[in-house]
Amino acid sequence: MANSNNSNRSVVPEAKDALNKFKYEVASEVGVNLKDGYNGDLSSRDAGRIGGNMVRKMIQQAENNMK
Questions:
Q1: What pLDDT, on the 0 to 100 scale, is given for residue 43?
Q2: Distance between CA atoms of 14 and 20, rounded to whole angstroms?
Q3: Residue 1 banded pLDDT, cuts 50, 70, 90
Q4: Handedness of CA 31, 36, 41, 46 (dihedral sign)
Q5: What's the whole-model pTM score?
Q6: Rounded to whole angstroms, how far apart are CA atoms 66 and 37?
Q7: How big is the CA angle at 34 (ends 13 and 27), to the nearest 5 degrees?
Q8: Contact between 28 and 50 (Cβ < 8 Å)
Q9: 58 closest CA partner among 18, 10, 31, 28
Q10: What is the pLDDT of residue 32?
Q11: Domain boundaries in the chain?
Q12: What is the largest CA-CA distance in the chain?
């Protein structure tokens, strides 16, 4: 049975393009080569490095905005 509370849904749909661009920037910083479109051959480790660094940078930005 499908879960009606989809976690992939964007809270702010207008931010989708900016987050996608951010993902590619972070991937290049950590040395992961993302292709346009399908990246299903990406290892879990590399995907985690990208996501983890994205979260770290977003938290850092939020903390800087609190100063």
A1: 96
A2: 11
A3: very low
A4: positive
A5: 0.79
A6: 36
A7: 75
A8: no
A9: 18
A10: 96
A11: 43-67
A12: 45
| pLDDT tens digits, 15-59 | 999 999 999 999 999 999 999 989 999 999 999 999 999 999 999
Rounded CA separation 29/19 (Å): 15
Residue 55, number of CB atoms within 10 A of its CB: 11
Q: Decide: 42 and 34 in contact? Cβ < 8 Å.
A: yes
Tokens, residue 46: 């590399």
Amino acid at position 18, single letter: A
Residue 21 sits at φ, ψ, to 5 deg, of -65, -40
Structure tokens at 16: 């989708």
Sequence letter at residue 49: R
User: Measured between alpha carbons, how far is residue 66 from residues 15, 31, 59, 62 in Å?
Assistant: 21, 30, 11, 6
